[in-house]
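Worked example

This section walks through a single chain of length 234. The input is the sequence exactly as stored; nothing has been trimmed or padded.
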Amino acid sequence: MTTLFEPIVLDAQTLTDKVYENVREAIVSRRIAPGARITENQISSGLGVSKTPVREALVKLAHVGLVEPAESRGVRVVAPSRRLLIEGYQVRAALEAQAVRLAGERRTDTDLATMQRLAQESLAAAVDHDGTQFRRVNPGLHRTIARCSGNERLATLVSESIDLVAALRARDLPVPDTSELCGRQHVAIVSAIADRAATRAAQLMREHLATVLESILDSHDAQAAGSGEPAVQP
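Given that input, the structure is written out below as tokens.
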């Protein structure tokens, strides 16, 4: 039987946060499929914890948008729809444009070196057609830019929005390969941050996320066409 959750190792982090991160990773990695129903009992027994931290973690997951109430007991993992994809990327664009603007104003030399390394790694992975490496580095760069904004709450919201769209994306479908374009956009964004050109960095970030959304919608529409369902879902 496939194990949905990873064993929890307790440390200084709260148990609720551990449960949240464990279930979130199971959703984002699609060990729990989109649309699947999960219950407090299932998570509690799977992780070997009481229901209280599970209940609190599910509230956090619902706040992020990764789960929604099921028809009966438990919650259901959010399933992709065109509307949710568009809304998710609209939120990301608003949050990350502000984050990159602040990063352009507040970044340190150490911050910049980290962002430059990640941007170059994303481009190298794209050129080498290394999708696994690109998917690892890509969210890391976006989260690093948000962290360099110096606004912890904004960085948290960016991270949550990245998790949501990751759960909504259907990466197993054939889509136009825009990875190299995205890698070059990453380099351009970080270059603007290096120049402390905050307004230009924000515009480049919006254009970058629009490119990503267009590619993902192509994937979503191809899936809908292949299944015979309408491309535009509620």
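What to look for: The beta strands are 37-38, 67-69, 75-77.
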